[in-house]
Design a protein that fits this description.
The protein is 23% helix and 11% strand. By secondary structure, it is α+β, with helices and mostly antiparallel strands.
């Protein structure tokens, strides 16, 4: 494998169809990419990363640990 080539995990689908709006809009693109990785697709209100996961009715940020107000 060359220096510029990155290995992708076995079985990971790297194809992603984007609409013209998603291609031009960074937030829409980030949201779509987060959803393909299993996250909710919304930015964290504390750190801004698109790494929110659902736990019942609550959301928790994997990056900083913030929650959506649930305990």
């Amino acid at each position: 494998m060359g220096a510029m080539e990155a290995a992708s995990p076995v079985g990971e689908n790297t194809d992603l169809a984007l609409s013209a709006r998603e291609f031009e809009d960074d937030l829409a693109f980030s949201s779509r990419m987060a959803k393909t990785k299993g996250y909710e697709g919304d930015p964290c209100s504390e750190c801004g990363h698109f790494t929110l996961v659902r736990g019942g009715t609550c959301l928790r940020c994997v990056s900083c640990g913030a929650t959506s107000g649930c305990s």
